[in-house]
Amino acid sequence: MRSNIQMDHTPCCSSLASSLRFVAAMLSVMLLAVFPTFVSANESSEDSTEETPKPKYAINVGKVITAVSEPIVDGRILVSDGKIEAIGTQKELEIPEGYEVVDHPDSFAMPGLIDAHSHVGGSFDLNEMVYQTNPELRNWDQIIPNNDALKTAIAGGVTTICFIPGSGTNMGGWGALVKTGPGSVDDVIMKAPGVLKIAQSGNPERRGGEVGSGRMGMNHVIRRQLEEGRYYVRQWDLYEAGKLEEKPEVNLRLEYFKPLFRREIPVVVHTQAYQVVQSTLRILHDEMNLRVVIDHGTFDSYKISDEIIKRDIPVMAGPRGFRYEPEDGQIKGIVAEYADRGVVALGVNTDAPVVPQEELAFQATMAVRYGWNPDAAIRGLTIEAAKALMIDDRVGSLEVGKDADIVISTGSIVDPREYVEQVFIDGASVYDIKVDRRRF
Amino acid sequence: MMKPYTKTTVSKGTAALMTAHRFSHWILTALMIVLVSAPTASAAEDSDSTKKKPSTAVKKTDKDEKKPSKEKEEKDDVLVIRGGDIQTVTQGMIRRGTIVIRDGKIAEMGSDVEIPEGATVIDASGKRLTPGFIALNVSRLGLSSTTGELTDSLNPFDRNMKLALGVGITTAAVRTSGGSTRGRFSLADKAGSESDYGKADNLISGEPDIAIGVPGEAMNLGFIDDNRFVGLDPDPTTILNNAPQATLDFGTFQTVCPCCGIAIRPTEPIRDPKPQAAKPTGSAVVKMSFGSLDNMFVKKNPFYSLPRGALSGALAKDTWRKQFETAREYLKKQAEHEAAIKAGKKVPPPRKPVTDDFLALVQGKKPLRISALTANEIREMIALAEELDYKLSLDQAVEGWLVADEMAEAGVTATITPRASRRPNFGEETSSGSWVETPRVFEESGIPFAVTALSPSISLGGIAGRDLTSLPLEAAFLIRGGASAQEALEALTLSPAKMLGVDDRLGSLEVGKDADILIMTGDPLDYRTYVETAVVNGRVAYERAKDRVLPLTD
Amino acid sequence: MVQAFTTSKLIDVVFKNKPSRESPEFDFQPMILSTVCRNPVSRRWVSSLVCLAALVASIALPLATECRADGLLAITGATIETATDDGTIENGVILIRDGKIDQVGTDVSIPGSAAVIRADGKTVMPGIVDPYYVVTVPSSSSGAAPRTIVFRGRTFVIGGTPAANDTSFVKVADAFQAARWNWRPAVRNGITTTHLVTRGFGQSCLAGPRLEAEQVTLDDKAPRTFIAVSNEPKSLKVLRSGLKKPSSSSSAKAPSSSSSSRSPSPKPTATTPPIWEEVRSGKLPLVVNANNAAAVLYVSQEMKKDENKDVKVALIVSGADALLTLEDLPADRVTLVLAPRLESEPTTRRLVNVAKEADELGIAVAFSLSSNQTNFRSSQDIPLFAVAQLVHLGFDRDAAIRALTRTPAELLGMEESFGTIEEGRQADLLIFDGDPLSATGRIERVLSGGDTIYETSLSE
Predict the structure, then answer these.
(1) 3-state secondary structure chain C
(2) Segment C398-424, tens digit of pLDDT
(3) Contact call for C294 and B155, based on CB within 8 A
(4) Against a cut of 0.90, is the pTM above it?
């Protein structure tokens, strides 16, 4: 499934156009609700590069880590129009006229990091807890582009976050995929709705006498809501295929289920511990046929790896990075345990602010310290997260045609001794320690 | 979830409070958690300290005498570590060197040292040897109780010590009791101390996810100071120490209801509290000599340690000055008394009006250690120290990079936690708050600094790299912040040893110093490096392959 | 001492308790009382204070001989685990006279008047001695409840003093309340002597368990000093001050008193109970309940001091804590008191046979069956299953038998009275249907002083 998508992105222009159309369409849907946030957002974002044509860059680095192929030593990346135009060695690739040259002869360039689980994209009121499921809610009205947390995040190499509602209810609402750089809300949103947030245990437990004080009740509530959504989408699908004569009524509450059940966006699931992940697999994947991302997968969840692999489900583990195993008194690295069991679609998350957003790479550091492979860690921070979130057509690797989200660091991003020198998002330099004060 | 920290303190009240918070907004209310510790007899302890010192000395000689009477050969064991690259800290690197250890001390060290016959030999070829790391600001490690006679409260089987040793911590300055403060208090994560151990499986229902609306509890985060988000993980003692002054003004009575945990507050009359001198926090320097009591206890109260803000404000400063006056007067009288005794006169000794610890501060035998986050606070503390002429060591001098020259000139030492960030003031983005390049600034200015971890204790809650065991990684962040590798290693070893006044024994690998040696798989500041073997007091206290507390990946 | 214990043992001879054959699950107390205790007066004696025991004995002695004809009992055909250096005797005879072992061997002639228990194919071993039988004693402090006081215009609650974990001195014999404690599991596990201690600090006593609390015998003639030690200043202070030599004036008195038959009348004080003198001189071991591994090291540290070089210690410790500290202990002066079971090694959680490890280091081991409470309460006539497991996993078989009998008896200074099967010892015997250290070794009969105090219903 994922391999299909990988091939999809080769015709970059059409994909860009289509996603722009998609964003525009989505924005028009939500226009009514959004404007107060827009105003404040525009005010707070400072150095936005509106309207001016984006400069073209030729970036020379000691090593290009593409995340999908072998690293290129003494590499060069050409950036124009916010996209990666070409990648090669400095010998092969000539610098065309009109390109600003950026030299980092001893540094590494890599794709911008992607956090699959973050709450610091805007205001923090991300839990509406009147209803147990909230498919009518979405959080991209809350976005504060390039806020303080995101500014620091950029200094940590994070260029895209999956900004999602909280786990206070079983279905917290719809989240957006957001770039961390400056700009208007329109500029920074990559995809909205980007994901649905579902929480299956723990936080959404209700003790007020309703159903849902335990996992039976919570899963019932989730399934009932999803069935309602599925029916709605099915009616529309039938209608659009001409199999249903009467046009179904538009229900704003259920409208975003369309991309979800059409498998255009995934559900990111607050699920952790063996049994809970098992119910995630069975209910959300097997029964509802959704694209699922296990967005915690901590505690002893790794023990169900074989079932996860069978279903080709990505695991973005975190924010907990290790588990103390009472049986042998040993600490286990959660990501390493997944990797040892053969899970490849594997990454980390910060659940920022649980772990500060800028420490996404450090989550990978710890995973490597506890036994993960450093190269796998680089992929997990970039392309695996992009695939999981279904945005690998635009981000997650340094490939021609993709967004020019480039992180230049003094060395491996997972080594805490090394630091980020410059960051490009959508082809614009948004952080450069030659100009800016170092932030992380 | 919250764990009760100590027998008498926090208890259900706070736990309930925290639970209540899970569903509310996280910066929501000004919580009045009235936590009252019963810092029993901290003053008494202080005054005991001189009496105690001889007792440790006696212990030493004891041991020496014991040696022959004990199992004959046992103590004559010689341990040799050979073949490793020795990072001495003070004398550069010795390639493929040999260290001979006798009686817990480094007897010989060098590249052409002969291996004595019958010695136990550890082959460390291809490995790196460094001095054991020293952790400051630790809570509950190696001590089962932090009140009373500390030498009788050691727990050399504290399993968390194995985790500490696993990352190289061989010595810890453990906070003990006491300490009064004013003002702020913190919400904090439970610290994964002993009580956490073995219960990690219970965490299955604990939720780290979205902490929005969940203050501190599931996150390893704390607030210091007007809700600034510092990423610190204060331990319970911090909370207690930072409880509002009024609630601590009860003397040593138990002031928490044993049934419901609600603080018992005074009825009436409520008077203004008398100006009181701030009480110092106790601490003990303890070695991670897992399985052995011998020389486990190093030192009591290496600092005169006050909580942040204890010396701010006119009243506090006035009290502090008066305290100095009193102490100096006493010292004068004491000198006169001694002279009189020498002269053969029979005169009663003067009454001692302050604690011995305070006298040590006045006499310059130990520094004042106080947390000062902002540049203004730092300046204030420096000015006071210069006025009253005592040594100053600043804990968490977050804005120190702004006043580094002044700190350097005043000879101040400091601690840095590179990842503990403090947001700048609004409109002063480049001239306030924490800065990642503080290590470079300090090094360039010549300010000696030690590195401290984000959390004072070891947590098994699962969040990786934010508890005490991330100390060496925090040192790696020093390098990220511009410090040299040598300076970063010193911040783990020699600098804290100097701050604690134990650099005659610890902090570097030199002949005559304690044999606290780490055998590491690589560069001590590489994030992939683990301790393979930790030798404490010349005894193997940790072996990674055998103890198996950390993942065995290679 | 021997005399003293025997005398008090005779209390149950007075009541001539018949072997009770009821199923252990049921409590037939009223019936038993009416049938067994013929004499209502004597029944009152038993439940009365223990200081009357001597008086009881003196009256009872002639009575006892009357009741028991010539007092001869023979057990024949059994495999005898003597727990002495003689080891095991096959097809042997034990002749019991007046509650004591008269002869043991293969060629013992049995007088015609002797009652005979045929034990062909069965195994006889000495009655089990439990060196650490914990009883709870109410706190001595009366002001234990929390109180509210007003001090300088403020109200405070002063917390109550906890009953347990106290360092005040407790004399178990003074607080002996047989009826409050459950003795049945002890009897059913083949325990014929218990060493009664509490969790705190004080003087212990011995008791002979019986199914009925009224018949439990007490012996406080030879109390031992016990102390719970933790790695905290309070208990260590008590330990150190106890071990410290008193000033010369008071020590002058000490040698005159004999070690074992000290009368309990002089009130010991917490600071210098005379009993400490015997601990210091090494005549009696100090019974130390080490609360954790760190406490063991503190105890070991004290023992290694020159002035304490004679001190012997019976160390009650969890197996896991013992495992961590075995090598630090002065092997020749320590007897470990362990619950018989496999322990998980604290770091790796692998299971370890601590008894075996200790034995191999030359440290004597005694088992306390009651310390393994789960097993103890549910053993159902196979009391030594856990011990058998340890033997199966490498613990020396003879050491295991000794750990249940002779070693604890020695620990209590009572090896001349019980703990082995040899001439002159009390006839405290257990008859098993086969090897007691096999997984199915069922106990059939428990004899105490020659009297059958328990028989399993399934025997015969």
Answers:
(1) CHHHHHHHHHHHHHHCCCCCCCCCCCCCHHHHHHHHCCCHHHHHHHHCCHHHHHHHHHHHHHHHHHHCCCCEEEEEEEEEECCCCCCEEEEEEEEEECCEEEEEECCCCCCCCCEEEECCCCEEEECEEEEEEECCCCCCCCCCCCEEEEECCEEEEECCCCCCCCCCEEEHHHHCCHHHCCCHHHHHCCEEEEEEECCCEEECEEEECCCCHHHCEEECCCCCEEEEECCCHHHHHHHHHHHCCCCHHHHCCHHHCCCCCCCCCCCCCCCCCCHHHHHHHCCCCEEEEECCHHHHHHHHHHHHCHHHCCCCEEEECCHHHHHHHHHHCCHHHEEEEECCCCEECCCCCCEECHHHHHHHCCCEEEECHHHCHHHHHHCCCCCCHHHHHHHHCCCCHHHHHHHHCHHHHHHCCCCCCCCCCCCCCECCEEEECCCCCCCCCCEEEEEECCEEEEECCCCC
(2) 999 999 999 999 999 899 999 999 999
(3) yes
(4) no
